[in-house]
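I have been asked to look over a protein record a colleague put together. The record follows directly below this note.
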Amino acid sequence: MPVLELRGIARHFGAIQALGGVDLTLDRGEVLGLMGDNGAGKSTLVKIIAGSLQPSTGTMRLDGQEVRFARPGEARAAGIELVHQDLALCDNLPAALNVFLGREIVRRIGPFRFLDRGAMFARAEELFAELKSETRPRDLVRSMSGGQRQAVAIARTRLADPKIVLLDEPTAAISVRQVEEVLGLIRQLRSTGHAVILISHRMPDVFSVADRVAVLRRGQKVADKPIAQTSAEEVTGLITGAIEIA
């Protein structure tokens, strides 16, 4: 049974059709590359999965059970985490406190409540070790590379041990060395059984880590096939419309 199953997902904004009846499945321990040109519908589809938008029509199933999220908090509670392209990190805080932002560990002493910084730093260190990242819990985010920032954002998703991690352009605007670090984080997520949807314009990244690629064009799914059965040339043709469907 797929961990995620979408059937006939459509979304309209007035007279504009952003998505037109998209079917998609995602298995545990699978990385799905989601590709398409600007305006193809990728962000709309991911926002529906993450609970930021509701579909106009269609159904979504999580572990076989039909779900409909009214807000992102409901999707997170169900096991879906989204890492936005801007990461939403606080530059003036250490990595560990960013990992626990909004989910702080608190201890009580009598009637008083205190942040348990020791517990948060220790748990963050464990998460970075699990991700095989060199990021250190006490380092300020403002001093970190793009790859280290991604590690902080991905570690934050691991707190709740989600079923699905949605990554929006995680390798955009970072160096080649940092790209390899982020791709390593994605491989590590897959190895621990997490399902990943990777939105990316970078063909080499998708072909490096994805098991399968789905292509959207003008709100329609025009391809959904294993990476081993396609090529960068074919995917480029599908994105641009030079190839109608595959």
Notes: The mean pLDDT is 93. The CA atoms of residues 32 and 197 lie 5 Å apart.
